[in-house]
Amino acid sequence: MALIFRFFFGGQAQNYLFLWGMGGTFRHLCRRKHPQTLKCSHVHARMSEGEHERVYAFQTEGVRVPKRRCTRSWQKGFTLLRSGIEVENLCQTHIFSGKRRTFVAVKRNHRYMAGIYVHIPFCRSRCAYCDFFSTTREGELPHYVEILCREMKERRDEFADTRVRTIYIGGGTPSLLSATQLQRILDCISANYAVEEEAEVTVEMNPDDRFLPHVNRISLGIQTFDDDLLRLIRRRHDSQTAVCAVKRLQEAGIRNISIDLIYGLPGQTMAQWEHDLDTAFSLGIQHLSAYALSYETGTLLTRWRDEGRVAETDEEISVAMYQRLCQRAREAGFEHYELSNFALPGFHSRHNSSYWTGEPYLGFGPGAHSYDGQRTRRVNEADLDAYFNNPLKGSFERLSTTELYDEAVMCGLRTRRGIDIKQLAVRFGDTQRAYLLHMAEPHLRTGRLVLTDNRLRLTEQAIMISDDIMSDLMA
Ligand code: SF4
Question: How far, in Å, is the centroid of ligand 1 from the Cα of 122?
Fold first, then answer.
């Protein structure tokens, strides 16, 4: 029985690769239409299937592919993984070296999807706890938007023939943009990248700023509904303004609203936190991100702590606050889909989820990060003047296999879906899979981890010690 496997490379018809013939012959038709027959001793069953890809295993025996046959479509679009080593260039002679070998092929179900992050590094004032890159030079926003558009245009080849399924405008304070400026940014993205019609478009907003049209998701930086604590951490809004902002968004037709809260603020009591949760879950929001306060180097809050003006919250109180948060979210019907993120069914942040599953993304603006979905990270310099001088300047980091493995473990354990053991073996090999299961064993015995449906997950009791467990499992 003949089987046809079709491999899409960038969705281009001329880039198709066909394999056929179970236990017989398989052929490929490359972009230059050079048919090449190879022996294929066996095509194994499909190994796994995710949202974006299917994984097959097959064995070849012996026909060497002449170097001239290797086209860019082989080299670029087709990822072949062998013994955990990602082979990026199929011209390597050991791939078709004459011996019978088993390979694993990844078939993309769609053109590769991606996210775009746009950084708006302007704030009216600086909050006491924040170490994000931003400036109060708000007057330079119009010029900034033009430079930003230049960067987006010049880098468009990085995501050529790739569908963009999420756009995230973050900061800083994106809600300082005018509606026209935001429209200009979105138009520039649409003109240079293939944005899906149903793309998730998120804008971060502060409660005291105006609402921006043209988006379908808002992330509102509320942090707490306690006015004394808001003043202490130097937020500009008060609790009433925050509540009104949510209502205004709802009246404007936004059906996907996320709010940010912080717990463990200096002097914050359980009663205050309970009040924050009461208010949050009474507002009809769809998504909640809640973070424990951290004292970052160089912030005002850290200086106050070092001077003895504020005290860090006891760890037991922070743990109790987190546990109460999980409980309240569950009671309100929210899914705890990532350590710090909760959402009603169907309202997980698609953009942030793509970071945890290792999808490629492009980041624009000073300090923004990009990732090609393979091994390369790019970081733009976090300096506004340097960015104005040359918006295309960035530094690149090539991730080692160990770093990729560690990241896969860390990101997988952060999410409710957990680590996909089969996929991990495909990417990093059976030895690494065995290592992971060996290191997980003590935690499986004590119930901190569970292994079901080939996925390794943290149990709720282990969330508070997730850092320790992650570091145990890392290479
Ligand atoms: S928390 Fe947000 S608004 Fe406050 S300084 Fe940081 S980026 Fe700006």
Answer: 8
